[in-house]
UniProtKB/TrEMBL annotation:
Name this polypeptide is given: Monooxygenase
UniProt keyword annotation of Oxidoreductase present: yes
A Gene Ontology molecular function term of the record: FMN binding
Keyword Kinase: no
Domain of life: Bacteria
Family: Belongs to the non-flavoprotein flavin reductase family.
Matching Gene3D superfamilies: Electron Transport, Fmn-binding Protein, Chain A (2.30.110.10)
Keywords: Monooxygenase, Oxidoreductase
Pfam families: Flavin_Reduct (PF01613)
Organism listed in the record: Streptomyces filamentosus
Start and end residues of each Flavin reductase like domain: 52-197
Length: 201
């Protein structure tokens, strides 16, 4: 079975093959176009965001730790992928400065946020800030990636594949460990640009 170092090497090789740097600099936007320069774009980007914003999602913080310390980013595009083997996936912008560190580490922990953790999410959404200032965390049992205190659930993973998806990358991770609070807590939801809470209808 491929170890974490091998998985990191696989991710980094993918980045190099895509012509992207493996340092912490933002990755360049891909030279991909659906239409030619003289054609009308099929979908207006602002309209795309507005319409897709009607699809509510949960909110997670994807974290890792490397030689320089812990890092992470806020992520709505997280999903379970496979039961056998146990796989999850998240999408990350190619311009992310956090992704190269996750790729180099080869591991990550998905921290599922609860309804009262909107401020924590906002702190992790700020680029360049010390996102872990005042944040309690412990190493996840399999990979050592940060497991944040007070989250309703966490999924500890090792990277197994990275795929291109336009201006994003699709990252697949094998679940090595996971856990959830015994008592059900309300999830933090995101809908049309705002945080919200779940209520029974």
């Amino acid at each position: 079975m491929m170890g974490h170092a091998g998985m990191a090497a696989t991710a980094v090789r993918h980045l190099r093959a895509a012509g992207a740097p493996t340092a912490v600099e933002p990755l360049p936007r891909p030279a991909l176009r659906a239409v030619q320069e003289d054609e009308r774009a099929p979908v207006d980007p602002a309209e795309f965001r507005r319409v897709l914003g009607h699809f509510p999602s949960g909110v997670t913080l994807v974290t890792t730790v490397d030689d320089t310390g812990p890092t992470g980013f806020a992520c709505q595009s997280f999903a379970s992928l496979s039961l056998d083997p146990p796989l999850v996936a998240f999408m990350v912008a190619r311009t992310s400065t956090t992704w190269p560190r996750i790729a180099a580490a080869g591991t990550f922990c998905v921290n599922v946020l609860g309804a009262g953790q909107g401020p924590l999410c906002r702190a992790f959404a700020v680029s360049g800030a010390d996102k872990f200032a005042g944040v309690d965390w412990t190493p996840a049992p399999a990979t050592g990636a940060p497991r944040l205190a007070g989250v309703p659930a966490w999924i500890d993973c090792a990277i197994t594949a990275v795929h291109t998806g336009g201006d994003h990358l699709i990252v697949v991770g094998r679940v090595e460990a996971l856990g959830a609070e015994e008592e059900d807590g309300e999830p933090l939801l995101f809908h049309r640009g705002r945080f919200g809470r779940f209520s029974d209808g």
